[in-house]
Every structure is written in structure tokens, then in C-alpha cells.
What does this fold into?
Amino acid sequence: MRGILLALVLLAVRAQAQPVPASNAAGASNSAATLAARIDAFIAQPRFASARWGIDVVDLASGRTLFAHAADKLFVPASNAKLYTTALALHLLGPGARFDTTLYATDRPDGHGLLQGDLILRGGGDPALGTDTGAADGPGWADALATRLAAAGVVRVRGDLIADDTRFRGPPFGTGWGAGDLFADYAPAVSGLTVGEGTLAVTVSRQGTRCCTIDVQPASAGVRVVNLSVDATPDDPSSLLLYRPLGHDTLYVSGSLPRAARARTYTLAAPDPARMAGQQLLDALAATGIAFDGHLRVLRWPRTDPALDDPHTVRIATLASPPLAQLVRHMLKHSDNLYAQTLLLQAGLRWQHSGRGSCGWVLHWTEQWGLCALRTLLGEIGIDREQAHFSEGSGLSRQDMVSPRATTTLLAWIARQPWATTLNDALPSAGNDGTLTWRLRNLPDGDRVEAKTGTLAHMYTLSGYLVTGAGRRLAFSVMLNNYQRPIEPNGDWAPPYPTHDLDAVVRLIAAYADTPARIPPPSEQTR
It folds into this structure.
């Protein structure tokens, strides 16, 4: 018996270490081992001794569980949390929802084109403003607004430009996001007025043979650079360090580039996306020939702007975001945390104004209203609060906890919704696009996997749909937590990689699903 188990482990390791051709997958599925035995053998490898696996596989046609392992236990879902946020946003807002960015003037220009009042750039929570994702006028958004202002007869503005960032109540980051994340491009400030996805590019270049010059784009980011870089030495060939203290706009660059490198570019979170948006509009006004005599001011929660309720305030122009379906597609394909958290906040606003209740506690922040809406939806789906807990909408927080069974329950519910195709098409497609472009290639002929990836340090997840060539459709959730990856003697990560391990389990599921294998009764399923 011990020899049989060893053989099964070796077979599973081989499956995760290299792509499985269709013929090999068919051979594996024809083996005498059941799906449960094969997965049990794989996750029983000694390198997983300190880790936790959670797996649930459900046939969507019959609703039967094909395999379960610790399916009711709680795991950190990482970006699998975006499945829940997406379902909430599509359910409450609809695939066609859009979010407006609007330019107002607090007065009309006189006969000479002089505007004695302020301009107000009111953010509507469009995470795609100023990008090619599909926002109105893309990177030329500010030029479009300046052109409309000129068309209204304005040639000079004597007031200020107010960048209004008051749409959302609460701090500009998700609850549970780590301080070390807030400097990175994957955790930009979450703002009602965001441009360029809240990021900036820093290019560190050699000047001749010496290190280094620093260039920050866009210049409207308003970053002050303190250049402390030095030439590399033989003992320290590469020690470049970029650091911006939280809440500050000063970027310190120290250390050196490798001697062989001419330049390197880094993408970082911008210190103030709303101010960056306001500055871009001011630059566009100047390019359009509109003189500006005032100052740029940023208005943030908990302050409000009474001018928006003043009857003298005039709407100059509005830029609509892409439809929610397009925002969701970008968010899931690229696992974008900014989009996810913003959509949770948008759903929270809708819930707050719906009058449907506050979940039994006092809600101060827009994020809390979004989580209240999510908790209510999960209860309607049949997911107990003990099976899913979220503190934000992206999965970047380690306070988020869900069970694999809750996730397959959600996936089964999604499959019955009128917008199911919208979400399914937005998921990364294995071997084709998004975060699964290079994963799960060479599946058995006709098999498809559309699923959401998830990665945090020591936490790895993959949940979605598997459709066989014969049309059988499964929902699956595979979660690996508390896993210390193998490390080479030099400190580099060693194979096999956790993503390969998750993919290996999905391959075993696919091989089993491709044949009319016997479904083990509940008494034989691993719990």
C-alpha cells in the first residue's frame, strides 16, 4: 500500500512539473485511482506538511460535490476576493453602470471671457480616467475638458481650481492593507478623483558613465526627488533603493545601478492622485490658451463643497467612465486592486442610498457600506457569515477569510445570473490572457479554464470554472495557505512554484472530469 501511495505522489509531482499533453491526461484519467486518491496523494507531499490546502469541486449541472478537502475551513483568499466584489458590483450596479468626472464653474464668464469664480473638478470614482482602458478621451481627458471650457467662452480664470476628492468617505486605502504596500503600484491611493490609475513612473539612468539621473513621469505627480545615488563599486554592484515616506511627496533615491545597466524604470504609487489630476487639467488649460490666476486646491473628505448645491454653479462638461462590464474585465484580467476597491466603494454608495439597512452597526465609511451590501448578498445566496469575511474589496488584506465551499457556492450562483457571461468573459483564460496567460497550457483537447488567480506571500489561490470538451462544467476553488516556498542556497526561489502546484490540482480535476468516472459518495470524500 505504501508503494502504491508513493507511485501516486510521483505521478502527481510529474503532472505539476510540466504541461500534461492530452494523451497523457487521458491515460491518467483512465487509471484506477479516484480523483480523491490522486489529489490526496499530491497534497500529502512532505513539502506541504506545514501548509494548509482547501479544495472544493462542484458539478454545476447536478450540484454534486466531486471532491472536497477542508472545504469549510477559512483561508486567506488573496485576489480571489475580487470574485466577490465583482459579483456584488454587477448585481447592485449592473454591467452598464458608468461613473462621471465633471467640470463645474461657480459662475459664468463675462462678456470678455473672464471667469471670476472657481473651477471644480469633481471626481466620480472612475478608476480608468486618463487611461486607455476605455475612459472618455483616454489620456487626453484633460484636453477635452479644457476645450469644452474654451468653447463656453472662458479665456481667463480669476478663481481657484478645486480638485474635489470627496465622493468616498474614509481613508484612501483598504482596511488591512499593509503600510509596506502603499508605496507600490499595486496599492495606489483609492480616490474619488484618480487619474492614470494613481501611479507614476520613475526612470533611473546613467549620465555618461556616472550614476544617476532621475526622471519622474508624469511631471504632474508633484514628486520632489532627493537624488542620493552613487556609482556602483565592485563590492556593491547593485543596491538601488527608492523610498517615499507615507504621506509625503519626497522620493529618495539612493544606492546605485549595476555598472552594465543604462537605465531602469519603476512604477510606484503616486502620493496624491487628486492633485495630479488637478495639475493635469491646469496644464491643459495653459495649452488651450486659458489663463489661470488662482491656485490648485484639493478638497477631501470629511469636507464638502457647498458650491455644488449653489444654483449659480454651472456644469461645463462631463466625462463618463467605461461601462462597468469593461472595468470588471480589466480588473479581473489584470488583478487590479485599485479597480476592485473602487468598485466596492461604488457598490457601497448605492447600498447606502438604497435605504435597505446598515447590517446592525453604525457605518461611517463608504467601504463599510460596501461590506454591508456584500454580507447581505452572501446571506441571500446561502453563504453563512462564518464562511466568508471581508475587510476590503481587493484581497490585498490578510484580514479577508473565505472557505473554498463559499467560493464554489458563489460561482454556482454567478452562473445563474443574467450577467454571468459578462463575468465569465472577464476572467483570465488559461493559456490565453490575463494572469493565466502562461499557465495551464496544453489542457486535454477542448477543455477550458476561466479562473481568478490570487497571490500574497505564503498564500496562493485559484478559483473559477472548468469546462470539458464534452461540455461538462465544473466550479472549483483551490487554496494553498501558510506555504513556505522552497529556496535555493543562494536565496532564490526554487521550483516547483506554488502556481504550478495549484495548476497541478486543476489538471487532475480536468483529467478526471474528461471521463465518466464514478463520483465517490460523501462517505469517501476527503473533508
In short: DSSP finds twelve helices and 21 strands in the chain. Residues 337-354 form the longest helix (18 residues).
